[in-house]
Structure formats: C-alpha cells, structure tokens
Amino acid sequence: MNKRIGVLISGRGSNFEALADSVAAGRLPGAEISVVLSNREDAPGIEKARARGIPARAIPSKGLEREAYDRLMVAALREHHVDLVCLAGYMRLLSPHFVAAFPQRILNIHPSLLPSFPGLESQRQALEHGVKFTGCTVHWVDENLDAGPILLQAVVPVEDGDTPETLAARILREEHRIYTEAVRIVLEGRYRIEGRRVLIHPAKGPEKK
Ligand code: GRF
Fold it and tell me: How far does the centroid of ligand 1 lie from the alpha carbon of residue 3, in Å?
C-alpha cells in the first residue's frame, strides 16, 4: 500500500508541484499525493493539481471558528486516507484538534532558518536584519507558529544586490529540494526525536551480496 500524502496550500503551489514531480520521478518510492486542499478558492495550486489528475478542492474558512474549520479539513484528509500532511504555503495556524489528529504526521516548509524570521515575509525580514545567510526549514507542526522540531534545513547566502524577490527565488529552489528529502526521511521512518532534536539515520545503501 502506498503512503498517502495530503498537501495543504493557500496559493501558488510550487512546493506541491515539486513534491508531485518527485513522486512522478520515483524520488519518493511508495508514496502518492492523494489530495490537495486549500483554504482559498483562488489558490492557483488547485488547478495545477487537477491538471495532474490529483483530487483538489478548496474548503473556504469564512465565518468558521478555527477548530470548526479544522474539523472539516481533518475529515477531508481522513476521507482520502492520508498518512502524512504536508503544509506547503498554507497560511493558517492549526488548532490542537488538527495537530492531535495527525501526531508527528504534519510537516511544514518555511523560507528561513528557523527560529529566525518566523511568520510572514521571512525573506524581507532576513534582508532587513542584515543576515549574511538565510535559507529554509522543514519542521514538524504544532499549534504554534513555525515552531515544531526541525527536520532539515538548507543554507542560502544573501548577496549584496538581493531584493526580497531574488532572495526568495534562490531559497525556493532549496525548498523544493529539501521538502522531498524530508518527506522521504519521514516515510522511511529514518529519524528519531529527542526533545527538540531530530536525529536522522543514514539511508540504507544497496544490499551487499
Ligand atoms: C514558500 O516560500 C513556503 O516556504 C512558504 O510559502 C511559500 C509557498 O510557496 N511557507 P508555494 O505556494 O509552495 O509556491
């Protein structure tokens, strides 16, 4: 049985596409993306998913309390028998109900080296702070903003001529690379968590004869 991934988006969906490309190219063996869900009806990622034949729909949050909304999301993920939830530009905090429904089964990608620059416009925050290196982080999700244990990070140097846009574009390339790597580690169970530290076991090499 394939491991079933549910991807949650709010916008463009390039991290979703990177994961879908990885599934198609065999870089995530034994995995499939079962559903893409968005809190925004106008998220371009929804059409991108449908174009690939992946079920996708928006669940609008208007007028709903956080937990009532998250109950709808969790129900939709369960309907698709999702094993792992990947937040990919999903612009909502999760309620304790959502987090408890998928224990250690929710990942997020964030465009900074957490715990620096959580929240919105991380690339602009990094430039304004004057750091020389920034990057991206894949972490487990809890109820707090960009806060759970860190699984993988990639470093991106800041260049003198950078604008938030040029920096974001270079970070995004690394996001696409490490999200697949992180999902693979989780699906293969190649990690253990000690406190906040995530220790990753090396990938198995080819069988020795
Ligand atoms: C990415 O930079 C991601 O790290 C952040 O939101 C952006 C989403 O981009 N959480 P996309 O929708 O995956 O293209």
Answer: 23
- Which residue has the least CA distance to atom 6 on ligand 1? 89
Which residues face 139 on adjacent strands?
Answer: 108, 150
List the structure tokens of 58. 């928006």
How much is the pLDDT for 207?
59
Nearest Cα residue to atom 2 of ligand 1: 111
pTM, two decimals, is 0.96
Asked, as a colleague might, if the bond just before 115 is cis with ω within 30 of 0, I would say yes
Distance from residue 118's CA to the centre of ligand 1 (Å)? 13
Report all structural domains of the chain as residue ranges with CATH numbers, in order of start: 1-103 (3.40.50.170), 109-209 (3.40.50.170)
Query: Token pair 């697949």 is at which residue?
Result: 180
pLDDT digits (tens, 9 = 90+) for 118-166: 999 999 999 999 999 999 999 999 999 999 999 999 999 999 999 999 9
- Sort strands 56-58 and 31-38 into parallel, antiparallel or unpaired: parallel
Bridging pattern class, strands 106-110 and 84-87: parallel
Query: Does ligand 1 have an atom closer than 6 angstroms to the CB of 111?
Result: yes
- The torsion angle over the Cα atoms of residues 80, 83, 89 and 94, rounded to 10 degrees, is 90
Cα separations in angstroms, 88 against 10, 139, 204 = 8, 12, 28
Q: Ligand 1 centre from 79 Cα, in Å?
A: 25
